[in-house]
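FORM 12-B: Structure-to-Sequence Request
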């Protein structure tokens, strides 16, 4: 897996990221969602540079403009719930993308510190020969991303796969790197050092799903 960690180059992205992390600013859930969406737009722009492009002429009122335009059949798949604002940000740029949604949540069956990933809802078009963008803002243990990919396999073999995330933990990034082929690309805003005993990214930002959409009762 090829890792594109955008935090390596300081940019306006740092402002959005620091607001997501800041425990007072993140109380504003509308701003929290919008900052994830803005990061989705930036990650989508960076990712777009690695798509396939074709020369095309555009007729202006006064002449012909030669340009190159991307011609990829994109399927944008996001993991509920926290993936929704990231999905919106990516979709703001990839106007014609088809869309897939999948639910993946942590089920704490035996102990609060151990969990398994439960995938239930899945709505997906054919992935055969297409460019799959798999988005989830938090890449903690990496298990949700890998479980989602497994669940998508019956829908066809994509031509290219891009993973998009906001914050990863080093350990989760390594886990995902093992599960995906070498040509898969990860576009991520930043990577933190560790996970706590409950599988939360440290320093991270807390629970992205709850911050975006409110608390939920544990199942
Ligand atoms: O890398 P992992 O260890 O699998 O953790 C990452 C997942 O955890 C969170 O989802 P959560 O289960 O909290 O659901 P939510 O989005 O509904 O809050 C987050 O939104 C990711 O999907
Ligand atoms: O730190 C984490 C880990 C998983 N999910 C989150 O929302 N935050
Ligand atoms: Mg959550």
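FORM 12-B RESPONSE
SEQUENCE OUT:
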């Amino acid at each position: 897996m090829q890792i594109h960690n955008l935090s390596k180059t300081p940019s306006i992205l740092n402002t959005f990221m620091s607001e997501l992390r800041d425990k007072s600013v993140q109380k504003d859930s509308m701003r929290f969602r919008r900052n994830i969406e803005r990061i989705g737009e930036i990650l989508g722009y960076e990712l777009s540079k690695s798509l396939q492009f074709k020369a095309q002429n555009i007729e202006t009122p006064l002449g012909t403009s030669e340009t190159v335009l991307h011609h990829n059949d994109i399927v944008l798949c996001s993991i509920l719930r926290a993936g929704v604002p990231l999905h919106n940000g990516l979709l703001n740029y990839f106007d014609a993308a088809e869309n897939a949604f999948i639910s993946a949540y942590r089920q704490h069956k035996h102990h609060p510190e151990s969990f398994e990933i439960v995938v239930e809802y899945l709505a997906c078009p054919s992935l055969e020969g297409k460019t799959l963008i798999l988005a989830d803002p938090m890449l903690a243990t990496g298990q949700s991303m890998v479980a989602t990919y497994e669940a998508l396999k019956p829908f066809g073999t994509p031509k290219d796969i891009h993973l998009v995330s906001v914050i990863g933990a080093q350990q989760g990034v390594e886990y995902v790197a093992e599960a995906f082929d070498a040509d898969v690309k990860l576009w991520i805003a930043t990577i933190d050092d560790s996970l706590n005993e409950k599988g939360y990214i440290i320093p991270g930002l807390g629970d992205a799903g709850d911050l975006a959409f409110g608390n939920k009762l544990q199942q």
